[in-house]
Design a protein that fits this description.
It is a single chain. By secondary structure, the chain is of the alpha+beta class. The chain has one domain. Helix content is about 35%, strand content about 25%. The chain has five helices and eight strands, in the order ααααββββββαββ. The strands form two sheets. Strands 1, 2, 3, 4, 5 and 6 form a six-stranded antiparallel beta sheet that branches. A two-stranded antiparallel sheet has the order 7-8. α3 crosses α4. The longest helix has 23 residues.
Amino acid sequence: MRSCLVATAVLRFALVAQAVAQTTDTVPALHRVQDLSLYTGTYPCRTGLLRSPVLLQATREVLGDQYAAYHDHMRASGCGAIEQRGDYILLDVSQLHVGGYSSIILVRRRDGALFLFWLSGTVPDRNGHVYGPRPVPRDAMAIFEHSMNIQWGHVACFTASGDSLAIDLTRRANQDTGRCLSP
């Protein structure tokens, strides 16, 4: 029993220390949003990159009056490792195990254009929107579609349609390939 109490105390201390470390980490210096590529493979919610003034300003510019709500979403979310996808840097900033509330940020490396897909509710709510310069390039829409189908293919099929993603709750997607299954 005593060893169990000691182990619990050690675990609690480790969790508190980790939480404090995450909130007191210095924010890595980004001079341009494209500098996120230097952090490929790292987790921006752990490194402090999600608090970078450069990234916050870029998201503020594309989100407009939705920025405050999205900023709240960022604070409540976890994140995946930063990835390179073709000409884009990908950040997945999503809440886990809540049936939606997902977002994918794409930054085009050549010019720093930021595109963001935000599912601001559950998948069945179908409240997803693509933000960023118009028209949204087809390759960016294909990345959004693929990423959402990998995450949520067990619930719905996401299909790029112009500058938006259609969410079909009657279909599913193969979560390995990211492709919608035939009806």
